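Input sequence (352 aa), recorded before submission:
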Amino acid sequence: MKNKIIGIIFIIIIFAFPISLLVTKDKPISYFERRHLTTKEDLKEDFTKELEGYLDDQVPVRNILIGINDIYNRYILNNKESNQVYVNDNYIYEKNYPLNLKSVNNFINKINYINESHINNSNVYFSIIPDKSYFLDSNKYLKIDYNNLINNLKSNINIEYIDIINLLNLEDYYKTDIHIKQKSYIKIVESLSKYLNYDYKIIDYKENTYDKFYGASYSKNPINKPDKLIYLSSDEINRAKVWHLEYGEKNVYDIEKLCNIDSYDVYLSGASSLIIIENENAQSNKELIIFRDSFSSSLAPLLIPYYKKITLVDLRYISLSNVLNYITLDNKDILFLYSTLIVNNSGILKTN
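Predicted structure, token format:
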């Protein structure tokens, strides 16, 4: 009897698998692996070459199978760390440990070099955004000494520091992504006004919600539900002109990116080396330059009402010498705004 049951189950699996592939709709994207999957359309182009990839990519319950190892490590073996992340109360924390002192010193030297060699008559500040590990209990998880790190930066970077860390709490971050929710930047915009000398105003933003935001950390903990991504719009934001060095003219919010592999790219179309945002109706003729990483993509739109021109420079993708072919760093407001993830990996910043 037992052998018959096993035989029946085996036959069901054998027939159910190909039938399920025929009747179910192909999934074009794997948010677990953050890549495009092979679909039936790809088979039409090259059947023999793509068949194996198609069978692998479209296997039923694929996401469950991918997550079994993580579930085993985290919930059966009770390992706090799996796939280089910690999970606590459904928040996924990318492990940012140990502190790379060589990288920290390199970061300090690069910021000082830009300031001392290329900036004249500008209001210059720097600020640091902590990664989510800042909020972990150091008695239970491996985390860097953030207070020591910030004090080191403040003591050695020859620019005035703006403290925004005390404005943030864990709830300001997405559960499945490293970034801060855009609404949480409103209080930071208000705080920055005290240094950058613009007249902060309360704006009645329209909230636009996308319910299926699978963040960059989502694949590392398959138990999590997707986040809600809210992007804030207003008449000034909608009217602003945006130019990318790579893409040319774009909108502030690239709505098509919401259904892409990384929905966070809705903010200013994602990774870009040089972006210039212009607002003809700004409250002043001031210009702002932000040396930044991806965290500033959702912050910059909220600064549009206050500046005639905002320039975003991402030295991960362009060298400083090339940047200076497009802009000057004189007589501007300048903000160096980086996450601790970049400070701990500063070799990727191209300041030559």
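Checked by second reader. The longest strand covers residues 206-213.
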